[in-house]
Amino acid sequence: MIFRQLYEPVSSTYTYLIGCDDTGQAVLVDPVINSLQRDLDEVQKLGLKLTHTLDTHIHADHITSALQLKQKAGSRIAAPAMDRLPCTDVGIEEGKLFEVGRLSFKPLHTPGHTDGHFAYVIQDRVLTGDALLIDGCGRTDFQNGDADTLYRSVTEKLFTLPEDYLIYPAHDYQDRRVSTVAQEKNRNPRLGQGKDLAQFREIMQNLNLAYPKFIDYAVPGNRQCGVCPEDLPEQLAAYCEWMAHSPQG
């Protein structure tokens, strides 16, 4: 397996390029529109053929590049079937393996951050999206999020994986790249250290997070698999171009 972790600094998003050694087929997980050319260049550099994009959920902080990658590279769009996106080519369901070449992804429905959120197990690692971050987790106060549901998703699904499995999240804001199931069970301040549901619920209720700056544009755009809305304010319009910095931070 070829595995590359790529970082997008505006939204602090990790995109994962995963390729099959035998067939040269590749998948981009959670690609970001303003990193489109970087991702295409990386695919070419490794001598791979991009056959699919795969999103963990409908993102609120960036626009996916799934649609533009389909137009430029001919890749197919894979996304959670339950989101019923009309632009999806492959609907992801729990209990049904997603296979590309000799790669086999095991989808785990992990709602709570959003109701349609999925994590993906591949070999000795799991791409946890926003459900489980390094020393944290995704927020639960929009897109049908629910703290009780997220607690069950993490403790009953992700924390029951082998403890040496590597955890690769969709974001990190402190330059951390990888964790393990054991590490998050032992030290995650929100979900680890034996936290019970009542404790987690209280933590999430008291985060007092600001309303996401980009959500009202990102969610509609991502429901179309990566379309930049026409009504973007000027200070956010640059986010849908290839750049290194944005006022979003």
Topology of helices and strands:
Elements: E1 2-8, E2 13-19, E3 25-29, H1 36-45, E4 49-54, H2 66-73, E5 76-80, E6 90-92, E7 98-100, E8 103-109, E9 118-122, E10 125-129, H3 147-158, E11 166-169, E12 179-180, H4 181-187, H5 197-205, H6 215-222, H7 234-237
Parallel strand pairs: 3-4, 4-5, 5-6, 10-11
Antiparallel strand pairs: 1-2, 2-3, 7-8, 8-9, 9-10, 11-12
Helix pairs in contact: 3-5
Describe the main β-sheet briefly.
6 strands, mixed
Query: SS-based structural class?
Result: alpha/beta
Order of helices and strands: EEEHEHEEEEEEHEEHHHH
Helix content: 10-25%
Oligomeric state, counting identical vs distinct chains? single chain
| Mean pLDDT across every amino acid position | 93
Strand composition percent: 15-25%
Q: How many E strands?
A: 12
- The dominant shape is globular
So, the CATH homologous superfamily?
A: Ribonuclease Z/Hydroxyacylglutathione hydrolase-like
Count the DSSP helices: 7
Poorly predicted tracts of residues: 242-249
Instruction: Give the CATH topology.
Output: Metallo-beta-lactamase, Chain A
CATH architecture: 4-Layer Sandwich
**Strand order across the biggest sheet?**
1-2-3-4-5-6
Report Rg: 17 Å
Alpha-carbon distance between the termini?
33 Å
Number of domains: 1
By CATH reckoning, the class would read Alpha Beta
